[in-house]
Every structure is written in structure tokens, then in C-alpha cells.
Automatic annotation (TrEMBL):
Residues of the DUF6285 domain: 363-444
Pfam families: APH, DUF6285
InterPro entries: ACAD10_11_N (IPR041726), AGP_Transferase (IPR051678), Aminoglycoside_PTrfase (IPR002575), DUF6285 (IPR046252), Kinase-like_dom_sf (IPR011009)
Highest taxon of source: Bacteria
Record-annotated Aminoglycoside phosphotransferase domain positions: 29-269
Keywords: Kinase, Transferase
Gene Ontology MF annotations: kinase activity
Lineage of producing organism: Bacteria, Bacillati, Actinomycetota, Actinomycetes, Streptosporangiales
PANTHER family named in the record: AMINOGLYCOSIDE PHOSPHOTRANSFERASE-RELATED-RELATED (PTHR21310), BLR2944 PROTEIN (PTHR21310:SF57)
Coiled-coil residues: none
Keyword Transport: no
Organism per entry: Actinocorallia herbida
Protein's name in the database: Aminoglycoside phosphotransferase (APT) family kinase protein
Length: 450
């Protein structure tokens, strides 16, 4: 069987010409930095401000794109704020696409959580988001044909198993989720499945649009509530509901909108599940780089962010605590050069490149974003070169105490219950390994509370 044909990357000029054939004269076409799984472009056409969403050339999915367009139409009819669909189809420069109206507002979480312009609206956002989810969950699963309907925990377990990369922290979470699955469930409905800070367009008056419906499916509506409360979407805020408010405020808004809130125990289960899901999704995105399908530095760095979610899993299960760890790169002084090489040494050269990436004046927003990601990657490299041998020796000793040669053997042992009589030692070993990985990948993450 021959390999599938992959469409070449389309230039802005090509896309503008094709869009003009459909929508009239196009101006200002520019690619935006957001969208790890799909290309996102902003442009104007015939007096309208629009957004183009387009599948990347290596993963076209016309069925999913058409389904997302149908979801937006159904959500709008249910009273959910969404951008209006202008046009969609299976082929724009070789891949499926959708054109939507461009709504005004902000999506960048750190601005939403910190900027003074949103100070007045922030206190009411958790309740508003609860009401919006209640309206969405009025939609029965068959409101949009052919929505996937899978057992979410089994789907994540299968997806994780497909990497053939057993992880001890994930095994601890899978056991807890299987043992504590709630007896109660919400009425089956449409689940957005990525309803969180970063996919919400917000202005000074409130939520203007719910974006990125590509993961939507039929299922338990409480999945959306738990996902919004996952630690990753708080961006350093102590408030559980997307960083905007408390769980209680979110559930109060959900009830005001006509939804039936879950119990605190059930919501916690969905939060733990959501943290597991983000762990698996980070690893999935990294696979695009690891497989050679996409050399985007963002996907490469995502592979080193998986340990952030492993730490958050342990936090959500009460198996570890936040800890403040100094960044090993903050120690002053320059390491000596190795061998006959001249100065500056390797560490100083990496510092110089990182400084350039973070201070260079770049007009393109997407390139600025990738420069920041590249600078973060260089810090990971520096820390690993500094501490890698020490961490490897400590990890080997930890595994050896359980008679295991590698993480995979240890993870399978946890799955099978071989070490249940040494449970405290297991948890201590897993937490220590995750801490070492985070000291290299992102030591600041260790200090953020659950």
C-alpha cells in the first residue's frame, strides 16, 4: 500500500488567492500563534473580519472539520456564544478548512487573569462559564450526527498504552480512577471536551465566544466541569475554575443555567481524569515531533512538559506536596570549557542564543512565540547537561530497590499490584523521579499548589 499523499505547506499568498475566490478580496491574512493541532489565520474579506481554521497537511480530517462546523451551529442555537460559521469544506490548498467570523476579545490566559482591563469582569466569570456549560449540555448527543461516544477512561487508557511507554505516575492515577469511579453520572449530552481558559474569548463584558470544538463528543456533561478545573488551566491562579473563581461558583452558575451539578466527589474524579487526559494529550502532541511528522519546536518541548502533568496527577491524588526548588541555572559563574576549546564555553554560548531568542525584535507574533519556546528548550538542555548524570544514577538506584531495570518494568509492577505491600515506598520513588524530571524541565512548576 502506498503512503498517503501529504499536501505541501500553503503560503499566505496561495491561501489568500483561494479565499478570495470564495469570499471576495482578502487583506491582512496572517497566521496566529495559537492552535497546536490546526492552523489558525486571521484576515478580512469583503468588509468582514474572519478566522480561517485549517488542518495541517499531514493530518487532514474532513469528517471532523464538518462535524465541528455542525457543532458550532447547534451550540449557537442552544444559546452558547460561538463565532458564526461562514463557510467550510474539504479542500483549501489540500486540506479541510472552516471560515468563521472573528469576534473581538482576548484568549491569552495570563492577560485574562492579570490585566487590569479584565478586573471588573473576572469575579463573575466562573458563574457565567457554569451557565454557558448548562446551555451546551441541554443538547442531546444526537443533536449533531456521528459524534464519537466512547468510555473516556478506557479511551485514555488505550491511547496511553499505544505509546508503549509505561509511566509509573500514570499507573498510580489509572488505578485510582478505576477504583474510585463514581456511581452517579450526568445525563448523556454533547461534551465540548476542551472548555477551558485559553479556548474562551473574553472581553470586558464577559464571554464572547467558546472556541476549538474539535475534541467534542457525546458523553457525561460533568467531564466539561472537571476539565475546566484542571490545574493546568489556572495558569498560576489559586482559583480552581479556570483561574477565575471557585468550584462552588462554577457549580452555582451551572445550576442557575438549568444544569444538575455533580457531587464534590464526582467533580474531583473528573478533575483527576482531566489531569490524566492532559498528560496523555501532551505526550500525543510530542509524538508529532518524535515520529518525524512535524519538526515544530513547540511539539518537541511538549514532550518535556509531560512531567508537569505527572506532578499535577500526584498532587491531585494527595501523593505529593508543592516544593520550592532553586533553578540550577541561577547559580552565578560560568562552567569551565571542556578540552582544548576556547571561550566562551558551551553554557555561555547557549545563554547567548537564548538571550537573542528572547530579546530579538520580531514582528511576526507566531515567530515570537516560537522564539520563547526555543529559549525554554535551551534552558532544559542546560539543566540536563548539568544534572543528567546525577539524576540518572539516583533513578537507577530507585528502580533497583524494586528489582526493576527501567520505568516500564516498574510501571507494569504498579499496574499488577506487585509492590502493594510497599505502597509508601512506591509513591516516594515515583514522586522523587518526577521531581528530578521537573528540576530539569521547569523547576518553577514544583511550587504551584494543587
Amino acid at each position: 500500500m502506498s503512503a498517503p499523499t501529504i499536501a505541501p505547506a500553503a503560503t499566505a499568498e496561495t491561501l489568500a488567492a483561494l479565499l478570495a475566490e470564495r469570499l471576495g478580496p482578502v487583506t491582512g491574512l496572517r497566521r496566529l500563534s495559537g492552535g497546536a493541532s490546526r492552523e489558525t489565520w486571521a484576515f478580512d474579506a469583503a468588509g468582514r473580519e474572519l478566522i480561517l481554521r485549517r488542518d495541517p497537511p499531514h493530518t487532514p480530517d474532513p469528517v471532523a472539520m464538518a462535524r465541528e462546523a455542525a457543532l458550532l451551529v447547534a451550540a449557537a442555537e442552544a444559546g452558547v456564544p460561538v463565532p458564526a460559521v461562514v463557510e467550510h469544506g474539504p479542500d483549501l490548498a489540500g486540506t479541510p478548512y472552516m471560515v468563521m467570523e472573528r469576534l473581538r476579545g482576548e484568549t491569552i490566559p495570563r492577560r485574562l487573569l492579570r490585566d487590569e482591563r479584565f478586573a471588573a469582569v473576572r469575579p463573575g466569570l466562573a458563574r457565567e462559564l457554569g451557565r454557558i456549560l448548562a446551555h451546551l449540555h441541554e443538547l442531546p448527543p444526537d443533536a449533531v450526527p456521528d459524534l464519537p461516544a466512547l468510555d473516556p477512561l478506557q479511551e485514555m487508557t488505550d491511547w496511553y498504552a499505544g505509546f508503549e511507554e509505561p509511566r509509573p505516575a500514570v499507573e498510580l492515577a489509572l488505578r485510582w480512577l478505576a477504583d474510585n469511579r463514581p456511581a452517579e453520572a450526568g445525563r448523556p449530552t454533547i461534551v465540548h471536551a476542551d472548555f477551558r481558559n485559553g479556548n474562551l474569548l473574553i472581553d470586558e463584558d464577559g464571554v464572547r465566544g467558546v472556541l476549538d470544538w474539535e475534541l467534542s463528543h457525546a458523553g457525561d456533561p460533568w467531564e466539561d466541569l472537571g476539565w475546566l478545573c484542571v490545574k493546568a488551566w489556572r495558569f498560576g491562579s489559586p482559583l480552581a475554575a479556570g483561574g477565575f473563581g471557585t468550584r462552588e461558583e462554577l457549580l452555582a452558575g451551572y445550576a442557575e443555567g438549568g444544569g444538575t451539578p455533580p457531587s464534590p466527589e464526582t467533580l474531583r474524579w473528573w478533575e483527576v481524569f482531566g489531569t490524566l487526559r492532559w498528560t496523555v494529550l501532551c505526550r500525543h502532541q510530542a509524538e508529532r515531533f518524535l515520529s518525524g511528522a512535524d519538526d515544530n519546536v513547540e511539539f518537541a518541548v511538549l514532550g518535556r512538559r509531560v512531567c508537569e502533568q505527572e506532578h499535577d496527577l500526584l498532587l491531585s491524588l494527595g501523593l505529593t506536596e508543592p516544593v520550592t526548588v532553586a533553578d540550577p541555572l541561577d547559580v552565578p559563574g560560568e562552567p569551565a570549557s571542556v578540552g582544548p576549546h576556547d571561550r566562551p564555553g558551551a553554557a555561555a554560548l547557549i545563554d547567548a542564543v537564548r538571550h537573542y531568542l528572547t530579546t530579538a525584535e520580531v514582528a511576526d507574533e507566531r515567530l515570537r512565540f516560537h522564539n520563547r519556546v526555543g529559549a525554554a528548550a535551551l534552558r532544559i538542555v542546560q539543566r540536563e547537561l548539568l544534572l543528567g548524570a546525577e539524576h540518572a544514577a539516583a533513578h537507577t538506584a530507585r528502580l533497583g530497590s524494586f528489582g526493576c531495570a527501567d520505568d516500564a518494568e516498574f510501571a507494569v509492577g504498579i499496574r499488577e499490584g506487585r509492590f502493594d505491600d510497599r505502597w509508601h515506598e512506591v509513591v516516594t520513588a515515583v514522586a522523587a523521579s518526577v521531581v528530578d524530571k521537573l528540576i530539569v524541565a521547569n523547576p518553577r512548576h514544583l511550587a504551584t499548589p494543587a
